[in-house]
TrEMBL record:
Pfam families: PSCyt1. One of its GO terms (molecular function) is heme binding. This is Cytochrome C Planctomycete-type domain-containing protein. It comes from the Bacteria. InterPro entries: Cyt_c-like_dom_sf (IPR036909), Cyt_c_Planctomycete-type (IPR011429). Residues 57-116 form the Cytochrome C Planctomycete-type domain. PANTHER family: CYCLOINULO-OLIGOSACCHARIDE FRUCTANOTRANSFERASE-RELATED (PTHR35889), F-BOX DOMAIN-CONTAINING PROTEIN (PTHR35889:SF3). It comes from Terriglobus saanensis (strain ATCC BAA-1853 / DSM 23119 / SP1PR4).
């Protein structure tokens, strides 16, 4: 039996080119670093909170998706919360439903995200962000 031997050339070029093409197609292999501002509190959201919410929550709570009547892609909807009322009280993490549901405290609602917990670091970032006033851009870029 004779095995077809692929030419070296096709191996050395085709794969990297395909891979590069796929990366371009997917809009880049790495997420774009957030564009920072002159406000450290705004930057804390852009670097440590926004990416966590986008990655773990937006598919159910942004744009057309409003599970529980709750949208998180603008500051006003994020503060307003959903069918169970206010989600974020700036300056007061312990009154903020969003923090309790990510801590998976059932008394405050269904645990979020439903399919598994955020890391402790991510939860701590959300807590600090609320304590410092929940500063974020009014309309979030998706
Ligand atoms: C797979 C979909 C899904 C994901 C992902 C998800 N949620 Fe939810 N969320 C829901 C559903 C469904 C409800 C309504 C639950 C209920 O019936 O009370 C809800 C409700 C909520 C509420 C309460 C709204 C209200 O007033 O009733 C908060 C706060 C919340 N989610 C925060 C989050 C946060 C923060 C994340 C990310 C860390 C997240 N969710 C990720 C599906 C999701």
């Amino acid at each position: 039996m004779i095995w077809p031997v692929p030419s070296k050339r096709s191996f050395s070029l085709t794969k990297p080119l395909l891979f590069a093409g796929l990366c371009l197609f997917l809009g880049g292999c790495r997420p774009e670093p957030p564009k920072l501002t002159s406000d450290p509190k705004q930057n804390f959201y852009l670097q440590h909170v926004g990416p966590v919410l986008k990655e773990n929550c937006y598919r159910c709570h942004a744009g057309m998706n409003r599970k529980g009547g709750f949208r998180m892609d603008s500051r006003s909807t994020l503060l307003a919360g959903g069918k169970d009322g206010i989600a974020v009280v700036p300056g007061d993490p312990e009154k903020s439903r969003i923090l309790h549901v990510v801590r998976r405290e059932n008394a405050w609602g269904k645990p979020m995200p439903p399919d598994g917990p955020l890391t402790e670091g991510e939860i701590a970032a959300i807590e600090q962000w609320i304590r410092e006033g929940a500063v974020m851009p009014e309309a979030e870029r998706r």
